[in-house]
Amino acid sequence: MNIDSSFFVRFWGVRGSTPCPGSEFVKYGGNTPCIEIRCNDRVLIFDAGTGLRPLGNLISSEGDIEADIFFSHAHLDHIGGLPFFGPAFNPKNSFRIWSGQLENARSMKDVFKSIMTAPLFPVPFEIFNAQLEFKVVKSGQAFTISKDIEISTANLNHPQGALGYRVNFDGKSICYISDTEHRPEGIDKNIVNLIEGADIVIYDATYTDEEYPNHIGWGHSTWREGIKLCDAASADKLVLFHHDPSHDDKAMDEISTLVERARPGTVVAREGMVLSL
Ligand SMILES: [Zn+2]
Ligand SMILES: [Zn+2]
Fold it and tell me: pLDDT of 208-253, one tens digit each?
């Protein structure tokens, strides 16, 4: 696919919690979180859910690569694609791997090693031949990954913690806010500050308003809360993300109609969808 834009986001996995294959999930997709952001020729990957495997196939077809992978956190739905990431087997590739400080002082490298270990997986982590450099980010930290790409971060409200990211490039910005639960005491100022004036905000909208009361404390939010945050931050396009596995295409179509009415321009993330800036 030829995309005529120097700054875009492409969705490879939009489903929260667990992959959902099947004919009822064809339109929006069943892979777990993985998105790709391109800033000119640089590739930024956010989370390594099962959507990472097909993204890896694309990257492998483009030749050797140097890229950055950012983790929101280490829950299974955000790391499950890792062992199947083809480019990690190529010694000519190199990846910088960014994450927040994980619970129990474990590193993302420990997480990689633990999922690729007997009896969970047939071959060990050391089978990856690519150069992997692990970096830990403090929540709230801002940094640059090249002279023209700036990343800022914020703490999210999620069991064991999670990190939200904002990518600033060429005077525009894309934010990735998954996973997070809105705060009962009012709007989450950490998120409002991070997404202030952003062009695209990808937000954890796992539950509907009706479903949320049965899932308080699970660490996820709703599309109505996403709208409140984007309005408070004067952000432009809201993209609903991390869809609940119980929401089939029909349910997502209904949500899509409701959000378009509530905040025109809001979209529901679909596998393969590209948004350009
Ligand atoms: Zn998740
Ligand atoms: Zn999670």
Answer: 999 999 999 999 999 999 999 999 999 999 999 999 999 999 999 9
Q: What is the pTM of this model?
A: 0.97
Confidence of residue 56 (pLDDT cuts 50, 70, 90): very high
The terminus-to-terminus CA distance of the chain in angstroms comes to 17
- Residue 248 C-beta-side C-alpha neighbours within 13 Å: 5
| Residue of 38, 89, 81, 39 lying closest to 60 (CA atoms) | 89
- The residues whose Cβ lies within 5 A of ligand 1, an ion, are 16, 77, 179
- Ligand 2 centre distance from Cα of residue 77 (Å): 7
CA 218 – ligand 2 centroid, Å = 8
Average pLDDT in the chain: 96
Residues facing 191 on adjacent strands: none
> What distance in angstroms lies between residue 92's CA and the mean position of ligand 2's atoms?
32
Residue 114 has pLDDT above 70, yes or no: yes
